[in-house]
Amino acid sequence: MMATRLLRRWRVALAAAFALMAGATDRPQLALNTAAEPNRVAPRSEHSLTSRTIVDQLRQHHFLKRKLDDGLSAELFDKYLEAMDPGRAYFYRADVEALAARHRHGLDEALREGDLAPAFEMFNLFQERVTERLEHVLSLVGAGLDRLDFALDEQLEIERDNAEWPAGAEAMNDLWRRRLKASVLSMSMNGRDLDAIEEALEKRYRNRLKQATRVRSEDAFALYVNAFASTYDPHTQYFSPRTSENFNINMSLSLEGIGAVLEMQDEYTAVRRLVPAGPADKNGGLKAADRIVGVGQGETGAIVDVVGWRLDDVVSLIRGPKGSVVRLEVIGADGAVADARLVNITRNTVQLEEQSAKKRVLSLDAGGVERKVGVIEVPTFYADFRSMRTNPNARSSTRDVSRLIAELKAEGVEAIVVDLRNNGGGSLQEAQGLTGLFIESGPVVQVRVQRRDPHVQADTDNGVDWDGPLAVVVNRLSASASEIFAGAIQDYGRGIVTGSRTFGKGTVQTLFPLNRGQLKVTQAKYYLPSGQSTQHQGVVPDIAFPQTYDPHRVGESALEDAMPWDKTRPAEFRMESDVTPFLDALAQRHQARVAADPDFEYLRALAMRNLEERARTHISLNRDTRERERNAYEDWRLAVENELLVAKGEAPVLTLDELDDAARDPADLGEDPMLRETGLILLDYIGMAQPVAMVDAGAASAGAATTN
Predict the structure, then answer these.
(1) pLDDT tens-digit map of 345-355
(2) Integer Cα distance of 403 and 472 in angstroms
């Protein structure tokens, strides 16, 4: 092994020496010649045409009317720098100052003329800096990782999006030395020996260096016009021809893969959300905000390091034929405390049947009396639109829920809970139809296009499938159509919303074809019947449960430059009922009930841990400190898990390795605690509302007698 390591060091050191002989100096310059010269890319004529078309389309169709002026130019300049170098680890301060002097206030005129030269100049300089940095870090690896001193009390800033640009070579080299130490320390704490780490990191940086030499003009163009699109909002995007193909596959749900929506965050491929009932969702090992650092094929295939890879290349590795296995090496959103883990997922297609609404009956103990509450889980708002053309009874979420309500009625339930947790949305038409099952008639959503008067979309059938006690349970991953349904139920006073604040996506996107690719434009906003927008703010539950997703990493408010919350005029509608007078008393009973509830203690512990981790700004590069932190985390985790196990009548475990994955979710140790508690809240509501109804009925009878 020692001989192998020495040979590897010699090879890397030789490459670094060639780089130095080629002119790499300690002083930052605006142009560098390196041993591995990256391709210098230039715009093509069709790029100029496409950029002018994008400018025109955004002016005409985007919800926001923005002026193409110096202010937008400065914002575009900053966003383009951020898109290239989000961790401020490649450009020097002198680079940024020189580029700003030339281009910060001139990109607007260039866009009008279809002039992409400034964008490509910035991109080519960035590629030179990337090559320089990767060669430098390869030289550090080649010099020997055993030279790194993990006894020093050093730290690395976790998120550098607001950090200072490195002032010179000394500051830049120190940053990359710390980054290398962080990688080595994490891999070492995950059980890899120094030879394996050295080999893995050399391969990682060589692969990234190879990618830097293979960039195409389309890469620079897409990065730039998407930086421009993001000055409007984070959902407005340009899809290159290749990305457009991937987008269309995802929208048709014909993709054979893992069922996850991925995005780039710094140099990592991050999970934005999971497709309900998809392979990853059913597997349970992958979570929103996780970062994928490696991909392997089959049960035993080698893990390919994908840190720094292009998103479409990572997607190509993850995608594969139905029935095959893909292995993902995953770290948490912070990558600091949680160890890397392997998740094996069997690829499959997402079937409509798997995403369909399902029911169950909760048998709840209320004062020694067993009472039934129905639960309808709606994973997505779906409809078989193709079959609807010929079959009026084609499958849809509204038809399925209507059938399930009838079945629950036959089973004698007293109340119904609609479970929209993790429901990312779907058909607006279905959200409208589903709401109509619980209200007689009236507005469901208002859609406002480009600041015109909103168009009211209403339920008009005057029929109700369920007029009894109702609750809707949501979480941070309940988005779009889910928020419309939950918000309308809340506006009408028709039911009680429990859970945690929803995602906050209240915008509508439209696809426009281009001469190359497609443009997705935010063209409209959703508003509830009350006139409140769901954008950014989401739906706030009437009774809040512990937040298990970090809202600073998951949700619309976590996206940079998300469009703001606002409101429009309320639509005309009549309250179906009013749960508001009971909410304070219901919340008090809820708090008293869950104060010592082991499931909610577990959820509160997870939520508190999220808050603590969010407050971390740096990770230690001292091995003893990191090991103490990991031991403290594992001790905390073991204690929390054992408290739950013992409370559920299970035997405690001695180590986390003994803990079965299924036992980590309190829902798998009995009834889902959030559904159970929502059911008990509804039973409390029935007990409170019935005396009021009886008094009202008596008053009405007395009034009638007096009148007569």
Answers:
(1) 888 876 655 67
(2) 18
Q: What integer pLDDT is reported at residue 281 of this predicted model?
A: 81
- Is 480 catalytic? The answer is yes
Q: Given 85, 290, 491, 684, which residue is catalytic?
A: 491
Q: In degrees, to the nearest 5, what angle opens at C-alpha 555 toward C-alphas 552 and 558?
A: 45
Catalytic residue among 240, 356, 397, 480: 480
For residue 142, the SS3 value is helix
E-state strands within 76-181:
155-157
Tens-digit pLDDT profile for residues 334-382: 655 446 788 888 888 766 556 789 999 999 988 889 999 999 999 989 8
Q: 403 to each of 48, 357, 358, 495, how far by Cα in Å?
A: 54, 10, 10, 20
Query: Strand 618-620 and strand 155-157: pairing?
Result: antiparallel
State the angle between helix axes of 217-229 and 45-61 in degrees (0 to 180), rounded to the nearest 10: 10
Q: What is the pLDDT of residue 370?
A: 93
Cβ atoms < 10 Å from Cβ of 660: 8
Q: Answer yes or no: are the C-beta atoms of 537 and 555 closer than 8 Å.
A: no
Summarised one tens digit per residue, pLDDT across range 642-667 is 999 999 888 898 888 777 544 455 44
Residue 283 near residue 292, CB atoms below 8 Å = no
- Across-strand partners of 168? none
To the nearest 10°, report the CA torsion of 683, 689, 695, 701: -100
Residue at token pair 């970090």? 550
Q: Quick one: pLDDT at residue 347? A: 85
Could you give the count of Cα atoms lying within 13 Å of 421 in the half-sphere of its Cβ? 19
For 676-701, what is the mean pLDDT?
73
Question: How many C-beta atoms surround the C-beta of residue 166 within 10 A?
Answer: 22
pLDDT computed for residue 244 by the predictor: 53
Question: What b-and-e string marks burial along 125-152, b requiring 16 or more CB atoms within 10 Å of the CB?
Answer: bbbbbbbbbbbbbbbbbbebbeebebee
Specify the DSSP class assigned to residue 540.
P
Whether the predicted pLDDT of 317 surpasses 50? yes
The Cβ of residue 333 has, within 10 Å, a number of other Cβ atoms equal to 23
- Of the candidates 79, 359, 505, 525, the residue annotated as catalytic is 505
- Residue 255 above 50 pLDDT? no
Nearest to 171 by CA among 76, 247, 255, 93: 93
Q: Tokens standing for 517?
A: 């690719």
**491 classed as catalytic:** yes
- Whether 505 sits among the annotated catalytic residues: the reply is yes
Whether 619 contacts 158, CB under 8 Å:
yes
